[in-house]
TrEMBL record:
Organism: Candidatus Harrisonbacteria bacterium CG10_big_fil_rev_8_21_14_0_10_38_8
UniProt keyword terms in alphabetical order: Cell cycle, Cell division, Chaperone, Cytoplasm, Isomerase, Rotamase
Matching Pfam families: FKBP_C, Trigger_C, Trigger_N
E.C. code: 5.2.1.8
Domains as described in the record: Consists of 3 domains; the N-terminus binds the ribosome, the middle domain has PPIase activity, while the C-terminus has intrinsic chaperone activity on its own.
Protein name: Trigger factor
UniProt keyword annotation of Chaperone present: yes
Length: 405
């Protein structure tokens, strides 16, 4: 076997392999024998026809291609072991010459060699910075307001809707006499004054009663998220299905005690709220530090970013975007174009964490994986990859943070 190896961008290799007639026969003959055993000719039992006659009945191209596939699999396996390659995608095989043996090219996507350099200084610079987490009275009051409103009682009323009422509506939007795509909404419920839709929308509903249908027009903002209707007149047909008056409870010791058995009064509740906000803000600060660390190490990391990993990440991001923005007018190609930079950034981040884990021999144990699976309700076998990566990344950051203590 002769081979030539050519490096390609995107962590790929092109391997040209040439096999002599004798070398190729090792793969071709067994495939041919298997095919001949399935031949059925008139006057002969299955697989018992004379070899020369049976060969005429065999699909020669299929036999040849199958033999090449087997040869490529074996040859690439040997070269991978010899060169310590980690193949991360299905090899692409192309025959370039079938005279006097066979010559074919195999395109391989490889897991890259990664050089992250010295990341300890970056770790100390990022994680040694102390950030004071302050909690404002406004944040505390906003949480209490949310708690009070979330426990408001609703009463169906037969009167015109007022700001602060809960309304249930159906509506449809047309532009220039044509229905707007995905703009027919049924059973939409919101607190009047809080919809944050187009300016003036809530005001049109004020004073309208249950079962009342009416029409009105509004102009979409010039920066509206749907580009095709930016600055255009939108014609609405709206029906009020129900109007509910909301009775928001008063903030009392009794209200606090009913929220939790650990609360005796309002001050107990406020203390718990402050602790919760403190914990949430601290977590956000820590998450921001982790992101900053990955970004800084990524800048100095030397790696040929695998195209196949970027494409997989891009598909995932695009699907998430389309699902989260069903009304977006972006098609898949345009979405992919806008998300490619983020996909590359995400892959680089994953490679940073992988490289540190490998360099420091950081691995979760089977016991830790099973405990995590039990804690989050996942299958330790089916979800092994996700659980392993999650725990390994957590251990990597625990190790990194230990460097600054």
């Amino acid at each position: 076997m002769k081979n030539k190896i050519k490096k390609l961008p995107g962590s790929k290799l092109e391997v040209e392999i040439t096999l002599s007639d004798e070398e190729f026969k090792v793969f071709y003959e067994p495939v041919l024998d298997t095919a001949l055993a399935e031949v059925e000719l008139k006057g002969f039992r299955k697989g018992s026809a004379p070899r020369e006659m049976a060969i005429q009945a065999v699909n020669q191209d299929k036999v040849f291609n199958s033999a090449v596939t087997k040869a490529a699999g074996k040859n690439i396996e040997e070269l991978s072991q010899e060169n310590e390659w980690t193949i991360i995608d299905q090899p692409q095989v192309e025959v370039t010459d079938a005279k006097d043996g066979v010559t074919y090219k195999v395109t391989l996507s490889l897991f890259p060699k990664i050089n992250i350099g010295d990341y300890t200084k970056i770790a100390k610079d990022v994680f040694s910075k102390e950030e004071v987490v302050a909690i404002t009275k406004e944040e505390e009051d906003q949480t209490i307001d949310w708690l009070l409103n979330s426990r408001a009682k609703t009463i169906n009323v037969d009167r015109g809707a007022k700001l602060g009422d809960l309304v249930d509506i159906d509506f449809n939007i047309t532009v220039d006499g044509k229905d707007l795509e995905n703009a027919k909404v049924t059973g939409d419920r919101f607190i009047l004054g809080d919809s944050k839709f187009i300016q003036g929308f809530d005001e049109e509903i004020i004073g309208k009663k249950t079962k009342e249908t009416f029409e009105f027009s509004l102009t979409a903002p010039k920066d509206f998220w749907q580009k095709e209707i930016q600055g255009k007149k939108l014609d609405f047909t709206l029906t009020v299905n129900e109007v509910f008056e909301r009775e928001v409870p008063e903030l009392t010791d009794e209200f606090a005690a009913n929220l939790s058995t650990s609360f005796k009064n309002i001050e107990d509740m406020r203390k718990s709220i402050r602790e919760g906000i403190q914990m949430e803000k601290t977590q956000r600060v820590n998450d921001k530090k982790k992101i900053n660390f990955i970004e800084e190490v990524s800048k100095q990391m030397e790696v040929d970013l695998p195209e196949v990993l970027v494409n997989r990440m891009l598909i995932s991001l695009t699907q998430q975007y389309i699902q989260s923005n069903p009304s977006s007018n972006l098609d898949h190609k345009e979405a992919e174009k806008q998300l490619r930079a983020q996909a590359e950034k995400n892959v680089r981040g994953h490679l940073v964490l992988y490289a540190i884990a490998k360099q420091e021999n950081i691995k979760p144990t089977q016991e830790e994986i099973e405990a995590e699976a039990k804690g989050v309700g996942l299958d330790p076998e089916k979800d092994y990859g996700y659980l392993y990566d999650k725990l390994q990344n957590e251990k990597v950051f625990q190790f990194i943070e230990s460097l600054v203590k």
